Amino acid sequence: MRVHLRVSLTKSKTGLVKEEKGYVVYANRQLSYTILTNKRLKNLYIEIHPTKGVLVKNPSFPLYKVQEIVNLKAKWIFEKSSQLQERNSIQKIYETEAKLLLFGEKISLHVKVPLDKFYKEKTQEIVLQIIKEYSAKMQLYPIRVGFRKAKKRWGSCSGKDELSFNTSIAQLPLMCIEYIVVHELAHIKHKHHQQNFWKEVQKYIPDYKECEKIIKDYSPAI
Asked: Which helix or strand (DSSP H or E) is residue 48 part of?
């Protein structure tokens, strides 16, 4: 197993940002990655991004230390990258199997509108229904609810308690959709992912960890 690096400097809006680009070789396979150095970070993180590939977020560790960590995590990096490529894709399933992925099931259904419009309509319908149900249970009410396309995120909650959901959520199993809605509603009360936040989520979705595992098999992008 070998790790290779080449170094370059790029400018960003916040000043001079150091960017190391390279590739790791594992089991006779090669995979490129990018090191993004941010001194505000406390720890080093490795992220498998659906569009940007492997990102190593570095708090300013020396290059040899970063290389050691990438070396140790090489097997994990390749496994996660492969899983990402194999995730259920709405477009792929529709083109190769002539089926739609709806509420976690593949169904034979011909739609007369573009796929993105079809999923947006289904998503709005189910999400608004779930928000109404769980807002009453949790006594947490968003100021606004919006829907938009996203390649990575399923949902978000702004500092002003405005919720936004990915228009492709309708592809997920119902239990996972409920989890995402409860997750974002909980952020109205807790603007973090600390213990109190997860207790709030677990109160209404006891098996939320299982939902998180299932969601990893799906791609947010249409």
From this structure: strand 45-49
